[in-house]
Amino acid sequence: MPSGEHPDERLGERWGAVVVGAGVAGLVAARELELAGVRTLVLDARDAPGGAVRGHEVAGLRLDAGAESFATRGGVVAGYLAELGLADGVCAPSGLGSWVHLPSGDGPLPRTGLLGIPSAPFASDVRRTLGPLGAARAALDLVLPRSVGADATTLGGLVRARMGARALDRLVRPIVGGVHAAEPDDLAVDAVAPGLTAAVARSRGSLARAVRSIRAAAPAGTAVAGLTGGVHGLVDALAEQAGEIRLRTPVSSIRRASGGLVVTTPGGEIGTERVVLAAPAPGLLDHLVGLGSTPDTGAAVTLVTVVLDAPALDAAPRGTGVLVAREADDVQAKALTHATAKWPWLAAEAGAGRHVVRLSYGRAGEDGPAPDLATALADASTLLGVPLRERDVVGHATVRWTQALPRPSAAHRDWVAAVRAALATQPDVAVAGAWVAGNGLAAVIPDARAAGRSLVPE
Ligand SMILES: Cc1cc2nc3c(=O)[nH]c(=O)nc-3n(C[C@H](O)[C@H](O)[C@H](O)COP(=O)(O)OP(=O)(O)OC[C@H]3O[C@@H](n4cnc5c(N)ncnc54)[C@H](O)[C@@H]3O)c2cc1C
Question: 414-422: which pairs have CB atoms within 8 A and are 24 or more residues apart?
């Protein structure tokens, strides 16, 4: 069909491309299409673009409501931000360490680890958290034969075999729960730690040596970075270049009509030559491909942000934050980020004595009610070791995220491969987003870029 012709006479609107979902994936894909001259419409069910990278205002501060950093691996995200003119805003976190909260007390997390896997199992910070016996068991990794753990397919299985249960429970499980809202025994090794399996093979089976080699190959500096003003600044910049964005417009189906595709919204049907599905709603593909199963949507996560006037927190008693081990039953939160201790730009913006603390709730398999302010304050007091009272609170906000952290299990990876294979014969339809690319901006951005480009006419 020549460009500019309507795919279906009955339809009132026609676009070169429709992108379903105005999260980062949808906006990145839409920008590629727009830059190539394809008129693009982005549809989103919510009342603001950005998905899990939205911003919100709490106590007069503009804060990230979801994601607040990005992985620096490969320089992918920083490079993309530079393309958008945001290079000057890229910033490193403060460099204060983070902690794990255990029933036996709090311990530091290894500074040179990967998802909590220590590169030096007998280092003093690891000994403090695992105890001498636990650290000695973890250090056995350096001498165990390469066959130990060689058949493990999950992250949990690999760490348990090479470093023992204590390293898994006290270091890896709290971090994996915080980042992926999932259990290490449910996660495919390479889905959460790309390249780790190959590095272990090159390191004669040793997990610690493998982590060391991966860290050595990474660019100098921290594993994550942020954006001055918050990572939602990425969404603001993208939204200017991503074509027309229509909010409060949930898409209920995508189907093929004579000469094109039709997207159904509450406002009517929209004709288009191409579609990018950048929302975790695979049922929308039912008219196009027979998938016959649904992906692993992962756990719901609730974030409680509290802004406090609490000069006692100036000393950053738990560095950039605390992850909670599952066996610790004195708090309900699974993680706390002391945002003003982590991001110097935010501390400057908040002013002396004012602090931003983010608590996250919701583990794999749990779906309880959202915690109230009193629970969040009690948890923050325990985790930071500083009494925090309701009168110290200047503002707070609770945001609940569902379907926002797909679980990177082996089953999920196979399902994604099946989706991509099923779509291979339909060159006018592409998929993008964390639900297919994996969690995190470093995975989502390059994948969404490729999805957008795949639909650009020759
Ligand atoms: C609380 C939290 C903290 C995070 N922290 C970090 C971090 O620090 N660093 C990092 O790299 N990553 C982080 N992540 C992960 C990262 O934010 C996501 O991987 C990424 O933003 C996903 O982008 P996306 O566009 O694929 O999906 P989403 O952001 O989920 O966007 C999908 C969009 O699709 C829309 N939508 C859904 N269904 C429909 C429909 N039927 N019709 C129309 N629209 C629809 C939704 O409204 C949404 O706006 C975090 C995620 C969460 C939830």
Answer: 415/293, 415/295, 415/296, 416/295, 418/291, 419/282, 419/285, 419/289, 419/291, 422/285, 422/289, 422/290, 422/291
Q: Phi and psi for 332 in degrees, rounded to 5?
A: -95, -25
To the nearest whole percent, how much of the chain has pLDDT over 90? Answer: 69
Number of CB atoms found within 10 A of residue 85's CB: 9
Counting from 1 in the atom list of ligand 1, the atom nearest the Cα of 27 is 25
For residue 188, the 8-state DSSP code is B
For ligand 1, which residues put their CB under 6 angstroms from it? Answer: 20-26, 43-46, 51-53, 66-71, 250-251, 278-279, 281, 301, 303, 401, 404-405, 433-434, 439-441, 444
- How many other CB atoms sit within 10 Å of the CB of residue 335? 24
Q: Among 91, 441, 449, which residue has the most ligand 1 atoms within 8 Å of its CB, making it the best to mutate?
A: 441
Ligand 1 centroid to Cα of residue 119, in Å, is: 31
pLDDT at 297 over 70: no
Q: pLDDT of 236-285, one tens digit each?
A: 999 999 999 999 999 999 999 987 999 999 999 999 999 999 998 888 98
* CA-to-CA dists, residue 25 to 120, 450, 451, angstroms: 36, 10, 9
Structural domains of the chain, with CATH:
13-51+232-296+407-454 (3.50.50.60), 109-220 (1.10.3110.10), 299-402 (3.90.660.20)
Query: Atom 38, ligand 1: which residue's CA is nearest?
Result: 279
Q: Which strands form 70-71's sheet, in the order they lie side by side?
A: 70-71, 224-227, 90-91
Q: Which residue is closest in CA terms to ligand 1's atom 37?
A: 279
In degrees and rounded to multiples of 5, residue 384 shows phi and psi of: -95, -10
247-258 tens-digit pLDDT: 999 999 999 998
In whole angstroms, give the CA distance from residue 398 to residue 30: 30
Predicted local confidence at residue 111, as pLDDT: 77
What's the pLDDT band for 176 if we cut at 50, 70, 90? confident
- The predicted model scores a pTM of 0.88
The string of pLDDT tens digits covering residues 187-236 is 888 888 888 999 999 999 999 999 999 887 766 567 889 999 999 999 99
Q: Are 53 and 235 a contacting pair, CB within 8 Å?
A: yes
